[in-house]
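Summary for the steering committee. One of the milestones for this cycle was to obtain a three-dimensional model of the protein with flavin-adenine dinucleotide bound, which we needed before selecting residues for the alanine scan. The sequence and ligand used are listed below.
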Amino acid sequence: MRVSAPRFDAIVVGAGPAGSVAAYTMASQGMRVALIERGEFPGAKNVFGGVLYRKPLEDIIPEFWKEAPLERKVVEQRLWVLGKDSVVSLGYRSARFKEPPNAWTGQRAKFDAWLAGKAERAGAIPIYETVATSLIRDGEKVVGVRTDRDEGDLYASVVIIADGVNSLLAKSLGVHREWNPDQVSLAVKEVLALPKDIIQARFGVEEGDGVTIELVGETCGMAGLGFLYTNQDTLSIGVGVMVSDLRKKKVKPYQVLDGIKQHPEIQRLIAGGETKEYAAHLIPEGGFDAMPPLAGDGWMICGDAAQMVNAAHREGTDLALLSGRLAGETAVACHATGDWSAGGLGAYTRAVKESIIHRDLKKYRGLHGLLSGPQVELLFGALPQALNDAVYEMLSVDGESKRDKQKRAAALLREAAGGTAGLIGIGWRGWRAMNG
Amino acid sequence: MSIEDRLYAVRYRVDDKSHLTIRDQAVCETCPTKACEWFCPADVYAWDAGERRILVAYENCLECGTCRIACAEHNIEWTYPTGGYGIAYKFG
Ligand SMILES: Cc1cc2nc3c(=O)[nH]c(=O)nc-3n(C[C@H](O)[C@H](O)[C@H](O)COP(=O)(O)OP(=O)(O)OC[C@H]3O[C@@H](n4cnc5c(N)ncnc54)[C@H](O)[C@@H]3O)c2cc1C
Ligand code: SF4
Ligand code: SF4
């Protein structure tokens, strides 16, 4: 080891939500922390839908919403099942989501920069515009990182790997293999500018309040979900599809997005919106069974790098925040004892196991099988359309008796699912996946 | 909206060296799917039938990582651009 190389108590790689919170937690307890980020600024490389929940961050920074750059309070959440030219919708609106707010919409470039700023003010040393290119080891033990700067080696007692879904560092540890194409979705997104009052009128909300719409169907038969969220004076619209399906289908990702944007019901909501940005990012969807080991000699892994995303509930940021905090707290405890071994840092793995991260991902562990299995075309193609057709049958008055209509609506669904047994089978597998 | 118009809305700081490399063009030549022409959200990859090679427009890369995982031949060497270079989102 070169004597002149800077030495820290902890190095955090990645200034996304996981990394910034880890750095914040340690720096506020007086540890010497380096926060490395490859982007021009924290958030420059990051993308989300994005809904940000209050609770996980409130536990770390009380009343953060008074200073954080956020868009609109989410007062209404809708689920839209899309057919070709129609939609079956379900929604929930409640004043209880307002005070205190349950969630906000937000934008990564602004939010991440703010959160990293909190870590800096707590004393973390920012090392931005810098790629951590590899881990430095002493035998099995991780003792630092090499960066793409001249003389860029940094040493520390622990390295927290919070570098997101494309975690080259976690791969280089050799503790887990590359993601399979059915463990990640590719999401493409656009930000569309629209005047505030138009957004408020179209979505039926007041100043400061907002709506989220999750979209099922019209993803060219691929496992995937779309979203349309309201910001102050922009809309976020996007769609994510499983990479394994994308590879098979010969449809370009932005063509899937175009299909959704051109849907007549969505067209009404986004009309006149000017595209201000186009973005693409992977979402880890392998769930519980894809999680790598979380800690070892001199290292811990947090957030997306460890597949901590609950795809069924679009929660990734909150799990990243929580895991960053748990890793930070573990490091603070190890700093006190001086034990940075796999045994000492193993407290982080146990903390994650006892947290909601583990409990929630375990509950949905079957979802991955369902979404990568043979029933995908059905679930995301034929069934949404059949549901729309069935509702059309039920609601159109054309002289036919209600009894006959009901029969035909049920038949449409049954047929799409490949008979009664097929329908029951899907229901059962779906139930198991959500409650396994 | 065309992909060119979309990419035009994105802010980049382009490095002069590519962070994406085709490991072996001979593998691409016999690749039956040329799937990279489809799955990349920024149309970075294009098969040049005349030169019989995959062209890589790395300047447009959104750094999503799909090609790292989706090329069945693992024929794309994927690294991050130099610190500070590449995509810089305004919204994200
Ligand atoms: C389209 C989309 C919609 C989503 N919607 C939601 C939503 O509505 N709600 C929600 O809660 N979650 C959502 N998510 C998930 C959420 O965005 C992620 O789970 C979360 O951002 C993970 O945080 P992280 O800190 O682990 O990783 P990231 O936010 O990815 O941060 C990793 C950081 O590490 C940096 N980095 C990587 N490698 C290096 C290196 N070698 N050296 C230096 N720096 C490096 C990156 O530049 C980046 O800043 C969505 C994701 C996508 C893609
Ligand atoms: S990069 Fe991969 S997918 Fe593209 S042509 Fe070459 S081998 Fe095929
Ligand atoms: S990282 Fe994404 S945007 Fe860049 S070349 Fe690969 S697939 Fe295309």
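Key point for the committee: The interface with chain A takes residues 1, 3, 5-7, 9-10, 13, 33, 35, 38-43, 62-66, 68-70, 72, 78-84, 86-92 of chain B (CB under 8 Å).
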